[in-house]
Specification:
About 60% of the residues lie in helices and about 15% in strands. The chain is α+β, with helices and mostly antiparallel strands and about 450 residues long. It starts with a helix and ends with a helix.
Amino acid sequence: MKVLTRYLLRSHIAPFFFAFLALTGVVLINTLARELANLAGKGLATEVFFEFFVLSLPANVALTLPMAVLVAVLYTFSQFAAENEITALKASGIDLRRMVMPLLAAAALVAGGMVWFNDQVLPASNYRWRMLMMDVAQTSPLLSLKEQVVNPIGQEGSTSLYLQASRIYQGSNRMRDVAIYDVSNPEAARTIYADSGWVAMNRARTDLVLTLFDGHIRQVDTAQPETFQRIAFERQVMRIPGIMQQMQRTEESSFRTDRDMTVAMMSAKIDTMRSELQTLRKAQAMAPSPSPETKVAISTMAREENYDEARIRNLRFSIREYQVEVHKKFAIATATMVFVLIGVPLALRFPRGGVGMVIGASLLIFSIYYVGLIGGEALADEGLMPPSLAMWQTNVIFGTLGLFAMWRIGREQSTGRGAGWGDLPRWLRRPMLRRRRIVEA
């Protein structure tokens, strides 16, 4: 049995890591695409993009690790059944249910690691990621120049220069037929014309450097129009400071959301809010009845009661949010064992489904699981369902189905050979058969 256990676990390693890397890559690309608009065009250093990439990984890993377990189980056991290894094991008198025990033990180890990961690593990375995105959002965007348009140059509210070019080559940042209008001095009009030029940022990416060629400067005093000056130049360099605000990093913040907290932090927060809730309830119970003699007193007490009621509602809502997040950390980690229970019988039932069955079944189970998780979170936040039930309902449902299916595969009348798509229930096969007849006709 030890040899079989090692063979079983070793067969899952390659599919697990392949699925884990593939799923994490897909989710990470989606995250990058969603946030790229907030990062692009701000002249951020390469280190900032790398930090964003690293801090995005833990949140993606928390989702894709249980998914990779399901994909590995479905693929490995469908291969066992398709190659008649399951039939050989049953003929040797080996109970298929015993084969699942090593996988459940391995899944329990993964779940234990995920509990620690979700409680310690994930909140810290979420906190740093949120601080990074706040710092990026407060950074002024990089100057964007458009050809044949009068482009303001400078920070919002302090624009003193305007640039116009008939042609801007984005690849080399070169410009043709350049005109710069300087309105920094209200008592003098100053205009710069150049045949060509190019634009660049300094190394700190805070100042704009304009290099102009073959042009002239026109300047006139508005109080003395006769004092017109025209100065020609072959090469003129203009340095405009403060075009882009350099990114300022925030080291620490006292504010943390529920996704930035560990279980201990959230438990302490829940205890504090419960104490405040009890204090408000006692104050309401001990409040005297409003005096009908003074309208001002009645109005004041009514406002205080409305404030207390609103505060009580907010406290209850916040307590439910923290409770949901606590249960979610454990529920997602435990999903690794649930996916083993439901993945093995499903793979043995449809072994000839191949990779298509693995992908289709995985997507279906993932969708149902995470829709139930997100829907349960919304219901629990609104107080329509207890937080514990909301976060554990999908695990309970899939776990119950998995245990029932595991009991079925251990019965004598079950077959190790399994079935294909053709053994689906008739009400599911009927649309497929009708479509096949239409195609053949």
